[in-house]
C-alpha cells in the first residue's frame, strides 16, 4: 500500500497520473506490462484518446477496458486494430523506427537512466535473479524516446547497477550517441516522489518536479546516488478529479475482471 | 503430412533425450499438456528454448528434465518469480542448469532466421548492454554496404517444437487465432513439430490471411482439449489467473513441488486424467 497524501490520493496514484501526462495524444507507444501499461492506458482514457498502444505480444492499437495481467492477454488482441506476430513487432514496428515512445518499468535504474532487470549481485552467483531482458533493451535502443516509471527507494535508484540490461544514456554525456543507438533515450523518470529529467550536456537525471507534499530530503534519502536538483524545481500538479476518476475506475474494472490489480503495487 | 496421434505417442516418438525442444506460445496457447507428457515420460538432458519460460518450463526444470535453458524473460506473469528456475540457477536443484540469456527481439529474430533456414539473425541490438558480456553467442557483424555494426545471434533451430492451437482439420492443417507470438516461426524452424489442438473439425473455416500451418509442414497433430491451461485459448477459455497465483507457493518449496508433480502428473495417465483430478479437488474445496 502506498501512503496517502492528505485524504485525496495516494503516492502511487500521483506517480501513475504524472507518468500518463507525459504521453502525447496520437503518439505511438510501445508499452511494458505493469506500471507502464497502467499509465499508458490512463493516458488513453483521459487526455490522449488517439494514443496507439503496442504490446510486444503482437497487438497494435490495443484499447483494453481492463488492464492486462500478462503481456499477451486476450483483451489486448480483441481490442486491437490488428494483431501481428511478435517477430514483426520487433522487426518492422520497433526496429523500423515507428515507435514514438517506449514506456518501461525497471527493477533498478542509475543516474543516467540505465536499467537493470536481470540480476542483483554477480551474474553467475546471483543474490537475486530477476526476470531478465524481455523486450526492454531494444525498446530502450530504438524507440524515439523513453519514459521510465518505478517506485523510488535506495534499492531501486542505485549508484552502480549490478547489470546493465537496457541502456539509457550509458556513461552520460554523448555516450549514447557514440553507441550508435537510434533513439534519444530516456527523457523522464517518473516516481512516487518526483519527476527526474536528464540535464542538458551531462544527461544525468536531476529532479525537475517534486510531487505535492514531498520534501527534497525524502528524495535524497530514497536515492542511492547524490541526487541533484534542477535550478528551478516545479511542484507536480496534483491529480485532477477526472484523472483520479478514470484511474480508479480502470483499477476497479481490472480488479473485478482478474481478482487482482494489473500493475505492480 | 502430419499424423493424427495421441499426445503420448507423439512425445514418445518425436521428443528424444538430449533434444533441443521449444514449447512456444506467448502467454497464449502455451502447450502445457505437452510439458506434462514430457515429465510423465521422464525425458532427460533437454535443452529448452522459450522466450518466456513461464510455468511450463518451471515444471520441466523442477522435474529435472532440462540441462540448459535458452530464454529472454523468466517470470510468472502478474505474480512474481519462477521459483524452480531460480532454484536451479541459484542452487543447482534438482540439477545444474546452464542458462543462455537473450532479449525478446533477439530470440524472435532468431526464430525467424531458423524458419528461414539461415544460420544467424541480424538485428540492431545490445549496444551498451551487459548481456553480450555474459552470453558469448551474442556477436556482431558489420554491414557490407553501410559499415554499420549490428548484433548477430545464432538462429534457433529446435529438434522439436511443440505448440498449441485452436483447431485442426482431419488432414492435420492447423489454424491459430489471436496472439500469435512466435508460434509459427518456432514451428517452421524445427526439424519436427507437434501441435496439440482444442478440437479437430471437418472444415477449418479459415478466413483469408489467417495463420494456417499446412499439414505437410507438421509432424503430428494431437487432440488435447484444454491443453493450454492455465494459459488460454482465444475463443475457448480464459487465462486461469488464479492458477498462476496458486503456483507460487507450490513452486516455492521443493517438497511441495515434488509432491504436486508426483500426484498430478506422474500420478495421472494423461492430461484428461489430470484435468479430472484438478476438477475433483476444486469440488472438494
TrEMBL record, chain A:
Reaction(s) the record says it catalyses: 3-oxoadipate + succinyl-CoA = 3-oxoadipyl-CoA + succinate
UniProt entry tagged with the keyword Transferase: yes
Pathway, per record: Aromatic compound metabolism; beta-ketoadipate pathway; acetyl-CoA and succinyl-CoA from 3-oxoadipate: step 1/2
SMART domains: CoA_trans (SM00882)
GO MF annotation terms: 3-oxoadipate CoA-transferase activity
Organism encoding this protein: Stutzerimonas stutzeri
Record EC number: 2.8.3.6
GO biological process terms on file: beta-ketoadipate pathway
Keywords noted in UniProt: Transferase
Name of the protein this chain belongs to: 3-oxoadipate CoA-transferase
InterPro entries hit by this protein: CoA_trans_fam_I (IPR004165), NagB/RpiA_transferase-like (IPR037171)
Keyword Metal-binding: no
TrEMBL record, chain B:
Alphabetized GO MF terms: transferase activity
Pfam families (alphabetical): CoA_trans
Protein origin, superkingdom: Bacteria
Alphabetical keyword list: Transferase
Keyword Mitochondrion found: no
Gene3D superfamilies assigned: 3.30.30.40, Glutaconate Coenzyme A-transferase
UniProt key word Transferase: yes
UniProt catalytic activity: 3-oxoadipate + succinyl-CoA = 3-oxoadipyl-CoA + succinate
Pathway(s) it belongs to: Aromatic compound metabolism; beta-ketoadipate pathway; acetyl-CoA and succinyl-CoA from 3-oxoadipate: step 1/2
UniProt EC number: 2.8.3.6
InterPro entries (UniProt xref): CoA_trans_fam_I (IPR004165), NagB/RpiA_transferase-like (IPR037171)
First-tier enzyme category under EC: transferase
Protein name listed in UniProt: 3-oxoadipate CoA-transferase
Organism of this sequence: Stutzerimonas decontaminans
Amino acid at each position: 500500500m502506498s501512503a496517502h497524501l492528505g485524504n485525496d490520493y495516494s503516492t502511487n496514484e500521483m506517480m501513475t497520473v504524472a507518468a500518463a501526462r507525459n504521453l502525447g495524444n496520437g503518439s505511438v507507444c510501445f508499452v511494458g506490462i505493469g506500471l507502464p501499461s497502467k499509465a499508458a492506458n490512463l493516458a488513453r482514457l483521459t487526455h490522449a484518446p488517439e494514443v496507439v498502444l503496442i504490446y510486444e505480444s503482437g497487438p497494435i492499437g490495443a484499447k483494453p477496458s481492463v488492464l492486462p495481467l500478462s503481456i499477451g492477454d486476450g483483451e489486448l488482441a480483441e481490442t486491437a486494430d490488428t494483431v501481428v506476430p511478435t517477430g514483426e513487432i520487433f522487426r518492422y514496428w520497433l526496429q523500423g523506427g515507428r515507435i514514438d515512445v517506449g514506456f518501461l518499468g525497471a527493477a533498478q535504474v542509475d543516474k543516467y537512466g540505465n536499467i537493470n532487470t536481470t540480476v542483483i549481485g554477480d551474474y553467475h552467483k546471483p543474490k537475486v535473479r530477476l526476470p531478465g531482458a524481455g523486450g526492454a533493451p531494444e525498446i530502450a535502443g530504438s524507440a524515439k524516446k523513453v519514459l521510465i516509471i518505478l517506485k523510488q527507494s535506495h534499492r531501486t535508484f542505485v549508484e552502480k547497477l549490478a547489470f546493465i540490461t537496457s541502456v539509457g544514456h550509458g556513461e552520460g554525456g554523448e555516450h549514447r550517441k557514440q553507441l550508435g543507438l537510434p533513439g534519444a533515450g530516456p527523457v523522464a523518470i517518473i516516481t512516487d516522489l518526483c519527476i527526474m529529467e536528464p540535464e542538458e550536456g551531462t544527461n544525468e537525471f536531476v529532479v525537475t518536479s517534486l510531487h505535492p507534499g514531498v520534501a527534497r530530503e525524502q528524495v535524497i534519502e530514497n536515492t542511492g546516488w547524490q541526487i541533484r536538483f534542477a535550478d528551478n524545481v516545479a511542484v507536480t500538479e496534483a491529480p485532477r478529479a477526472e484523472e483520479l476518476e478514470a484511474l480508479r475506475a480502470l483499477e476497479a474494472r481490472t480488479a473485478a475482471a482478474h481478482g487482482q490489480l494489473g500493475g505492480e503495487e | 503430412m502430419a499424423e493424427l496421434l495421441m499426445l503420448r505417442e507423439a512425445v514418445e516418438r518425436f521428443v528424444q533425450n538430449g533434444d533441443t525442444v521449444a514449447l512456444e506460445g506467448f502467454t497464449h496457447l502455451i502447450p502445457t499438456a505437452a510439458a506434462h507428457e514430457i515429465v510423465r515420460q521422464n525425458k532427460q538432458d533437454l535443452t529448452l528454448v522459450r522466450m518466456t519460460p513461464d510455468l511450463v518450463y518451471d515444471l520441466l526444470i523442477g522435474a529435472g528434465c532440462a540441462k540448459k535453458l535458452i530464454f529472454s524473460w523468466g517470470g510468472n506473469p502478474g505474480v512474481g518469480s519462477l521459483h524452480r528456475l531460480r532454484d536451479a540457477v541459484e542452487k543447482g536443484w534438482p540439477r545444474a542448469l546452464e542458462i543462455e540469456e537473450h532479449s525478446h527481439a533477439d530470440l524472435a529474430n532468431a526464430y525467424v532466421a531458423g524458419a528461414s533456414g539461415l544460420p544467424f539473425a541480424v538485428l540492431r541490438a545490445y549496444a551498451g548492454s551487459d548481456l553480450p558480456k555474459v552470453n558469448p553467442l551474442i556477436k556482431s557483424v558489420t554491414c557490407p554496404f553501410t559499415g554499420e555494426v549490428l548484433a548477430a545471434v545464432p538462429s534457433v533451430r529446435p529438434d522439436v517444437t511443440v505448440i498449441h492451437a485452436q483447431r485442426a482439420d482431419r488432414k492435420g492443417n492447423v489454424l491459430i487465432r489471436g496472439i500469435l507470438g512466435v508460434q509459427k516461426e518456432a514451428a517452421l524452424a524445427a526439424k519436427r513439430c507437434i501441435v496439440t489442438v482444442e478440437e479437430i473439425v471437418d472444415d477449418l473455416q479459415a478466413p483469408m490471411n489467417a495463420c494456417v500451418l499446412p499439414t505437410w509442414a507438421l509432424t503430428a497433430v494431437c487432440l488435447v482439449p484444454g491443453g493450454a491451461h492455465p494459459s488460454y485459448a482465444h475463443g475457448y477459455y480464459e487465462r486461469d489467473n488464479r492458477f498462476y497465483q496458486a503456483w507460487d507457493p507450490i513452486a516455492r518449496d521443493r517438497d511441495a513441488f515434488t509432491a504436486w508433480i508426483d500426484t498430478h502428473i506422474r500420478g495421472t495417465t494423461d492430461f484428461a486424467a489430470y484435468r479430472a483430478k484438478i476438477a475433483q479437488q476444486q469440488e472438494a474445496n
